[in-house]
């Protein structure tokens, strides 16, 4: 059913003209009047250097920096054009919030929602700094992270909620500030995203391959969903995380797929020019999400500075718009100033590593042909320490019944039974769901769930499953361990639970980019598995990866 609606949405998109798809609320800014970046207090020198370099560029060279190279030929998830004669490389932009994706010999970090659950400022910063070190080690100039309140988590059904810190604006703001600092302290530009009001996957953008249309939808939307909000709600709830990202000095902000009060987020004069660059005095650049660019003129005048990944818009079209006066030359200059200022401010023009990651995925032989050299540089260092600490401190105990010596902590049980596929390894391996960890929604992630899916995912170099850890401890405690990892075999689960003095049920929920959840129940028969085991074992412990 979902595949058929996806096909219908793609078919409809192919019949639409790119020039007629957009809407705009730029009535009060029909030409463009700024604001122009000046470097602020922190980036005066870098901005002056950027201006000096840009003054030597041709029109085409300026446009080349603002427009991504086509995703088909990009080395990274996104690449800007280079200006070799001025020593400006093709900048590498790469996912994501949980690690360098889809690189090998890099770490999979706990999701932002996981580190948010620690309420620990030091761990939030250390996680981001470790991420920044790994991105830099792989030669990535711009990390497409962190998720800065977009989504904030207005609905628990949102497919990308796992990528953010929290639905609480304060906690999200703290996480955003510290994460930007962590990334950029390691010399990597942070991309705070997705601005603004990006709170659902359904109808987010008909341009995309992962676009889900509900089976009962009366029609397929030719435009992204519009998030409509009043000014007070926007400033008090949805803006604070971005305020803190700007205060931390974020070099890049990614505009979102959705519309904002009827205007495409990537060309909305109110949120981009008036609020972000005006009220907040933001000095960095606004980058489109991939394929979130809808019109040439609208995006240029609306406040977007970089088009990604570079397919249908800008390029030669932007050259023409500047030549005929539709887009002022000062506007184009400001785009390039904003892009190059953080590049110089973070010292990326000095001894920055070359790109060293296999963006085609582990096992692919296509990447070395594009960019010969080592794609297997190991950047993990000792980051397992902060990863483990976050895992320990983020665990949340919801209920613990200690009647008759049961509950947690375990006291050397004689016969322990472990249930649920989430306790064990995926029999198909770590990469069964592809570069985006975009698993089947019917029975996703057969094995321990360590991350959600989509562009925010990352490969794990290894996973120590709960069953592995339990068996290691059991040897020391002389505990007999039995396990049953088939969530659907309730008959066997019942017979195993009867003979156990302690049972642990591992279950999960899964979220992924491109599709929202239908409900808040556990996945893969989890609710029934819990009830079956608990009905036979009065010391049943439930562990949920969610």
Question: What is the strand and helix layout of this fold?
Answer:
Elements lengths: L1 H13 L29 H11 L4 H8 L11 E2 L12 E3 L17 H5 L4 H17 L4 E2 L25 H17 L3 E7 L30 E2 L3 H8 L1 H9 L3 E4 L3 E2 L2 E2 L4 H11 L5 E4 L7 H7 L13 H8 L5 H17 L21 H4 L13 H11 L20 E5 L46 H12 L2 E5 L5 H9 L3 E7 L17 H9 L5 E6 L1
Helix pairs in contact: 2-12, 3-12, 5-6, 5-14, 6-8, 16-17
Pathway: Glycan metabolism; cellulose degradation
InterPro entries: Cellulose_deg_GH3, GH, Glyco_hydro_3_C, Glyco_hydro_3_C_sf, Glyco_hydro_3_N, Glyco_hydro_3_N_sf
Keywords: Carbohydrate metabolism, Glycoprotein, Glycosidase, Hydrolase, Polysaccharide degradation, Secreted, Signal
Molecular structure report:
It catalyses: Hydrolysis of terminal, non-reducing beta-D-glucosyl residues with release of beta-D-glucose. Pathway: Glycan metabolism; cellulose degradation. Residues 396-546 form the Glycoside hydrolase family 3 C-terminal domain. It is an enzyme of class 3 (hydrolase). Residues 85-341 form the Glycoside hydrolase family 3 N-terminal domain. With 546 residues, this protein is of the alpha/beta class. It folds into 2 domains: 2-12 and 36-361, TIM Barrel (Alpha-Beta Barrel), CATH 3.20.20.300; 397-545, Glycoside hydrolase family 3 C-terminal domain (Rossmann fold, 3-Layer(aba) Sandwich), CATH 3.40.50.1700. The chain has 17 helices and 13 strands. The chain has helices at 2-14, 44-54, 59-66, 112-116, 121-137, 169-185, 231-238, 240-248, 269-279, 296-302, 316-323, 329-345, 367-370, 384-394, 466-477, 490-498, 526-534; strands at residues 78-79, 92-94, 142-143, 189-195, 226-227, 252-255, 259-260, 263-264, 285-288, 415-419, 480-484, 502-508, 540-545. A 6-stranded mixed β-sheet has the order 1-2-3-4-6-9. α15 links the parallel β10 and β11. α2 crosses α12, α5 runs parallel beside α6 (169-185) and α6 (169-185) packs parallel to α8 (240-248). The protein is elongated, with a radius of gyration of 24 Å. The two termini are 26 Å apart. The model is unreliable at 1-23 and 363-372 (pLDDT under 50).
């Amino acid at each position: 059913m979902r595949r058929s609606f996806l096909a219908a949405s793609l078919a409809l998109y192919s019949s639409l003209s790119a020039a007629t798809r957009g809407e705009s609320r730029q009535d009060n800014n029909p030409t463009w009047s700024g604001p122009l970046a000046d470097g602020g207090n922190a980036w005066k020198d870098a901005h002056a250097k950027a201006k000096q370099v840009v003054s030597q560029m041709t029109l085409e060279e300026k446009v080349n920096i603002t427009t991504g190279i086509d995703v088909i030929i990009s080395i990274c998830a996104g690449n800007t054009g280079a200006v070799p004669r001025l020593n400006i490389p093709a900048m590498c932009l790469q996912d994501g919030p949980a690690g360098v994706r889809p690189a090998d010999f890099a770490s999979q970090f706990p999701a932002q929602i996981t580190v948010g659950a620690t309420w620990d400022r030091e761990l939030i910063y250390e996680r981001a700094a470790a991420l920044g070190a790994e991105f830099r080690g792989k030669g990535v100039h711009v990390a497409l992270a962190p998720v800065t309140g977009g989504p904030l988590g207005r609905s628990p059904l949102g497919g990308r909620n796992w990528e953010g810190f929290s639905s609480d604006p304060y906690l999200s703001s703290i996480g955003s500030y510290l994460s930007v600092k962590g990334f950029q302290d390691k010399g990597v530009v942070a991309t705070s995203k997705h601005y603004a009001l990006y709170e659902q996957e359904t109808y987010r953008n008909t341009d995309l391959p992962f676009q889900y249309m509900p089976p009962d939808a009366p029609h397929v939307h030719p435009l992204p969903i519009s998030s409509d909000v009043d000014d007070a709600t926007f400033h008090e709830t949805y803006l604070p995380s971005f305020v803190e990202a700007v205060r931390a000095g974020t070099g890049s902000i990614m505009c979102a797929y959705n519309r904002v009060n009827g205007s495409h987020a990537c060309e909305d004069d109110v949120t981009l020019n008036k609020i972000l660059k005006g009220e907040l005095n933001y000095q960095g650049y606004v980058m489109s999400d991939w394929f979130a660019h809808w019109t040439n003129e609208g995006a240029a005048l609306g406040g977007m500075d970089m088009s990604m990944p570079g397919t249908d818009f800008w390029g030669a079209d932007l050259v023409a718009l500047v030549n005929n006066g539709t887009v002022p030359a000062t506007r184009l200059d400001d785009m390039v100033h904003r892009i190059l200022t953080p590049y110089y401010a973070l010292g990326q023009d000095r001894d920055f590593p070359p790109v060293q990651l296999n963006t085609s995925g582990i096992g692919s032989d296509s990447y070395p042909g594009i960019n010969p050299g080592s794609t297997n540089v190991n950047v993990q260092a000792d980051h397992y320490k902060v990863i483990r600490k976050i895992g320990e401190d983020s665990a949340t105990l919801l209920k613990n019944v200690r009647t008759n010596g049961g509950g947690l902590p375990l006291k050397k049980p004689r016969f322990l039974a472990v249930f649920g596929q989430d306790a064990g390894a995926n029999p198909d391996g770590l990469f069964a769901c592809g570069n985006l960890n975009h698993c089947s929604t019917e029975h996703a992630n057969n094995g321990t769930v360590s991350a959600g899916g989509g562009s925010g995912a990352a490969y794990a170099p290894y996973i120590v499953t709960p069953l592995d850890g339990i068996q290691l401890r059991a040897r020391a405690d002389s505990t007999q361990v039995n396990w049953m990892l088939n969530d659907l075999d309730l008959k066997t689960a019942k017979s195993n639970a009867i003979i156990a003095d302690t049972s642990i049920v591992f279950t999960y929920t899964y979220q992924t980019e491109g599709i929202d959840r239908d409900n808040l129940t556990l996945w893969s028969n989890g609710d029934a598995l819990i009830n079956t085991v608990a009905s036979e074992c009065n010391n049943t412990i439930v562990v949920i990866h969610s």
